[in-house]
């Protein structure tokens, strides 16, 4: 498995790097078959260290977790525990979907934009245009999944919403977490 371990405006020592590779490798090996790579980012906000980890699995799914603590090792340990819990919880589902799937998850490229938030004082003035200001533009990937796989991917990634391309269809679908805790699924009709 490939590791990308970095610090955002902090130095990461060799000892922490070895600790991350050992502990994360053991946690993932118990519950996931053939993980391809892991990205771990450390940062500091105020008095807390923050650790964010994303593991890419050979099935095409991603698992994400984050943790925070006053010490950097404790922040990683918190993240590792959350990652292990997610993978343990979804081990059976991951194996079941992997058995059904003959090919890896197919992904399609798409553009992703970050729009500027409106200022509080902007409500007093009329905007010059209805077009929002784009702050950043980047590439994103839209996976081709079944609805069950999309829900599992959304939960593994800890995301509130996931856009996916259903297998065998031409449209894009959306699954999202509702305020009542249930999962919503938007399946637009192919009829126009």
Describe the structure.
A hairpin with a 2-residue loop joins strand 2 (35-45) and strand 3. This protein has four helices and nine strands. The termini are far apart. It has two domains: 2-98, Ribosome hibernation promotion factor-like (Double Stranded RNA Binding Domain, 2-Layer Sandwich), CATH 3.30.160.100; 105-186, SHC Adaptor Protein. The protein has helices at 14-31, 72-89, 91-100, 147-157, and strands at residues 2-8, 35-45, 48-57, 62-69, 106-115, 134-145, 161-166, 173-177, 183-186. The protein is an alpha+beta fold. The chain is 30% helix and 38% strand. The protein has a five-stranded mixed sheet with strand order 5-6-7-8-9. It has a four-stranded mixed sheet with strand order 1-2-3-4. This is Ribosome hibernation promoting factor. Residues 131-184 form the Sigma 54 modulation/S30EA ribosomal protein C-terminal domain. It comes from Tropicimonas sediminicola. Required for dimerization of active 70S ribosomes into 100S ribosomes in stationary phase; 100S ribosomes are translationally inactive and sometimes present during exponential growth. Pfam families: Ribosom_S30AE_C (PF16321), Ribosomal_S30AE (PF02482).
Outline of the structure:
The protein has 192 residues and is an alpha+beta fold. The chain has helices spanning 14-31, 72-89, 91-100, 147-157; strands at residues 2-8, 35-45, 48-57, 62-69, 106-115, 134-145, 161-166, 173-177, 183-186. The strands form two sheets. Strands 5-6-7-8-9 form a five-stranded mixed β-sheet. A four-stranded mixed β-sheet has the order 1-2-3-4.
């Amino acid at each position: 498995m490939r590791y990308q371990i970095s610090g955002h405006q902090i130095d990461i020592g060799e000892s922490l790097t070895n600790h991350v590779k050992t502990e994360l490798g053991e946690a993932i090996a118990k519950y996931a078959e053939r993980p391809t790579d892991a990205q771990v980012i450390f940062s500091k906000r105020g008095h807390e260290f923050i650790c964010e980890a994303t593991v890419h699995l050979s099935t095409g799914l991603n698992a994400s977790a984050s943790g925070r603590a006053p010490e950097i090792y404790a922040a990683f340990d918190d993240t590792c525990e959350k990652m292990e819990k997610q993978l343990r919880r979804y081990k059976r589902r991951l194996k079941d979907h992997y058995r059904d799937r003959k090919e890896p998850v197919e992904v399609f490229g798409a553009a992703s934009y970050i729009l500027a938030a409106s200022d509080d004082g902007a409500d007093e003035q009329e905007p010059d245009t209805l077009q929002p200001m784009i702050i950043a533009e980047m590439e994103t990937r839209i996976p081709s999944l079944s609805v069950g796989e999309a829900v599992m991917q959304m939960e593994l990634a800890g995301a509130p919403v996931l856009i996916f391309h259903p297998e065998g269809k031409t449209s894009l679908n959306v699954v999202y977490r509702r305020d009542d805790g249930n999962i919503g699924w938007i399946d637009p009709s192919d009829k126009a």
